[in-house]
Amino acid sequence: MDIEDILPSRDIAFELLKKKKVPYHVRKHSIKVAEKALEIVESIKSVKLNNDLVEIGSLLHDIGRSKTHGFNHALIGGKILKEMGYPSELARICETHILGGLDKVDAKSVGLPEKNYLPNTLEEKIICLADKMMAGTKEVTIEERFNKWFSKYGRTDILVKAKKRIDAIQKEIEDLQ
């Protein structure tokens, strides 16, 4: 059985977000992230990507915001999807999209279990990047996104590392275009 056979359809993903009571503005954000992620996928010709996983993963990446808007929304989202029987690849997208991914040290510092939450697959990286390029439903540059966070929270170690990770992801993806 292919992963496409066990991924929810776009319509089911929308219904799931509504059923779980993900706030409307978060659902709108997720649609924009999916559009941006698919735009990135379309620009990559040198490797084969799982477009369905990118689209559905983007739509569901913030499903954990049905319970909290803290860092642990990523783990909660992964848990929701696992409990529903969806593929681990979909759950990992939830777990690895926050900031530029979190290493063990960063995870522990924000109160998450001490493990790596770094995006590994291109699909995970594309969704992580597309998420950072959307401030709500407005497209922004990575510089704009991080400058806003730096002015709000300061140039913390975790944000500086996240910016470096996102810059590396962006370069990796640009090199495939």
Please provide a brief summary of the model.
This protein is mostly helical.
Fold blueprint:
Blueprint: H1 10-19, H2 24-43, H3 51-60, H4 73-83, H5 88-96, H6 104-109, H7 122-132, E1 134-135, E2 138-139, H8 142-153, H9 157-176
Antiparallel strand pairs: 1-2
Helix pairs in contact: 1-3, 2-3, 2-7, 3-5, 3-7, 4-5, 7-9, 8-9
Describe this structure in words.
By secondary structure, this protein is mainly α. It has one domain: Hypothetical protein af1432 (Orthogonal Bundle), CATH 1.10.3210. Helices cover 62% and strands 2% of the residues. It has nine helices and two strands; from the N terminus they run αααααααββαα. The chain has a two-stranded antiparallel sheet. A hairpin with a 2-residue loop joins β1 and β2. α2 packs across α7, α7 packs across α9 and α8 runs antiparallel to α9. The radius of gyration is 15 Å and the shape is globular. The relative contact order is 0.14. The mean pLDDT is 94.
The CATH architecture classification is Orthogonal Bundle
Distance between the termini: 30 Å
Q: What's the count of strands? A: 2
Radius of gyration: 15 Å
| Unreliable segments of 5+ consecutive residues | none
By DSSP (H or I, 4+ residues per run), the number of helices equals: 9
Largest sheet: 2 strands, antiparallel
Looking at the structure, the CATH topology is Hypothetical protein af1432
Q: H/E series, N to C?
A: HHHHHHHEEHH
CATH class: Mainly Alpha
Keywords:
mainly alpha; Hypothetical protein af1432; two-stranded antiparallel ribbon; 177 residues; globular
